[in-house]
Design a protein that fits this description.
Layout lengths: L6 H33 L3 H14 L5 H12 L3 H10 L5 H13 L3 H14 L3 H13 L3 H14 L4 H14 L1 H14 L4 H16 L3 H14 L3 H14 L4 H13 L5 H10 L4 H13 L3 H14 L4 H13 L3 H14 L4 H14 L3 H15 L4 H13 L3 H14 L4 H13 L3 H14 L4 H13 L2
Helix pairs in contact: 1-2, 2-3, 3-4, 3-5, 4-5, 5-6, 5-7, 6-7, 7-8, 8-9, 9-10, 10-11, 11-12, 12-13, 12-14, 13-14, 14-15, 14-16, 15-16, 16-17, 17-18, 18-19, 19-20, 20-21, 20-22, 21-22, 22-23, 22-24, 23-24, 24-25, 24-26, 25-26
């Protein structure tokens, strides 16, 4: 009788073992398979394996995270979110995948929450990077800078993080910006041109006493390095400090135009505040140029030159405006006036030469001598050398053009305009094959760009 008491439990245990052991075995086999598939980058299959294992091994909550991470890697953010939310707790990687998965589904607020919660549990560079990324989308520059400070604290070799932090500090904490920028430059020399632009602006702003104008100086530098979103914020801050700062309004108009937000209202406000501001006139002239309203463009530059008569840049801009209104005589006079105002500046001699070559006027007596003067002043400038080659081509000196342009591309192989002019020199001499090769080189090197599109036009014209 006593022995019979144990019969039923033993039978039940045996039955449970018979049922559960195969399931457990299948679950662990699924884990092993999922890990192998993940390593092999078969992420969809890995997701299925981890999900199956998670359903079988219900005490292994970490498997839901593995399934979620695999789903995220497979490009299925919605599925990743479902699995990750089932996990009782998440690792640093799990929180990072959850954040980016929410972002990929367009749920920015949930992405931000995920990164915030994850960073509270894990002191992680990747989670701070995610926070910085979301704050950047929200244009919350102060919060982004705080996240970046934590990111670079944990990852000192992240070039972009140092550079981006330097950009933000340039107007949030100018006294702390330069070390971050210089560190980025030392880690990656490709950032150095932008860093030097910002360094110059920081040094200049440090000498200025007007807080509003300090910000305008920084904002202009941010625009020069193509950080127009940041520049807009800086110019708006400058206006908050001094609503009568015409230059701040003018640059705000330019920044808005750069990101497709109009800008004319701000430019008009600048001119209203100071109708003699050459900055406002010049930027409004640039606005009309982009709108192809060349008469209005001309008026702005004429006024700028009236207010600043010794500045050769306005004469060059007047020349461009006259050219676009088909007044070649007046354009030539303006370009020549620019060289008279700055006889030792190669840029204006080059512009004069290009104008003559482009329009086929006064090449012998004005254009070619101007190109030679530009090269004399700047013998290592590919633009000046290219202008000389183009002037030779326009004057019918094909052999001289060919040799000059060959020298340019030998020294500066990425200078594509010289290759286009070389192709034109080849065409003028009947060397179709060489011309075809040069044009195709440009098309391959600048697909979709202005040089590439022009080369395509020449191919269609000469090689139908």
């Amino acid at each position: 009788m006593h022995n019979k008491k144990w019969v039923v439990p033993v039978i039940v245990s045996a039955l449970l073992a018979a049922i559960l052991l195969p399931l457990i075995y299948t679950g662990y086999a699924g884990i092993k398979k999922g890990e192998a598939e993940f390593v092999a980058q078969n992420y969809s299959s890995a997701t299925e394996s981890f999900e199956q294992a998670a359903r079988l091994l219900i005490w292994r909550g970490d498997l839901w995270e593995k399934a979620g991470v695999a789903a995220g890697a497979a490009g299925n953010p919605s599925q990743a979110i479902i699995f990750l939310k089932r996990a009782p707790e998440l690792s640093e990687q799990g929180w990072a995948v959850l954040g980016i998965s929410y972002f990929d589904t367009g749920d920015i607020e949930s992405a931000l929450t995920a990164y915030q919660q994850g960073s509270e549990l894990h002191d992680s560079a990747s989670l701070y990077a995610g926070l910085a990324f979301i704050y950047r989308q929200q244009k919350n520059w102060l919060a982004e800078s705080d996240a970046l400070k934590n990111q670079v604290r944990l990852n000192t070799d992240d070039v972009y993080a140092h550079y981006r932090l330097g950009l933000l500090l340039s107007f949030l904490e100018p006294e702390n910006a330069l070390p971050e920028l210089m560190l980025a430059s030392s880690l990656d020399p490709e950032t150095d041109p932008a860093v030097q632009t910002l360094r110059t602006a920081l040094n200049l702003s440090a000498t200025q006493t007007d807080p509003s104008q300090k910000l305008v100086t920084i904002g202009r530098a941010l625009g020069l390095v193509q950080e127009w979103d940041l520049a807009i914020s800086v110019f708006e801050q400058a206006i908050m400090l001094n609503a009568e700062n015409a230059e701040a309004w003018a640059w705000l108009g330019e920044a808005k135009q750069q990101i497709g937000q109009g800008g004319l209202a701000e430019l008009n406000r600048a001119v209203t505040l100071d109708h003699t501001s050459v900055i406002a006139r010049g930027l409004r002239g640039l606005y009309w140029d982009r709108q192809k309203k060349y008469q209005q463009m001309l008026i702005e530059y004429l006024l700028a030159a009236q207010y600043e008569p010794e500045n050769p840049a306005w004469q060059a801009s007047i020349g461009d405006a006259y050219f676009k209104t088909s007044n070649l005589v007046a354009a030539l006079t303006a370009y020549q006036h620019a060289t008279e105002l700055a006889p030792n500046e190669p840029t204006y001699w080059r512009l004069l030469a290009v104008f003559c070559a482009e329009n086929g006027i006064h090449i012998e007596d004005v254009g070619l001598p101007a190109a030679q003067k530009a090269v004399e002043l700047a013998p290592d400038d590919p633009f000046a050398l290219d202008a000389l080659g183009w002037s030779y081509l326009s004057s019918g000196r094909y052999a001289s053009a060919e040799q000059t342009l060959l020298d340019v591309i030998a020294r500066f192989p990425s200078h594509l305009p010289a290759r286009i002019h070389l192709a034109m020199a080849y065409l003028a001499q009947g060397n179709q094959a060489s011309a075809f090769n040069e044009l195709n080189y440009v098309i391959d090197a600048d697909a979709g760009g202005l040089d590439g599109l022009f080369a395509e036009q020449l191919i269609k014209q000469y090689f139908p």
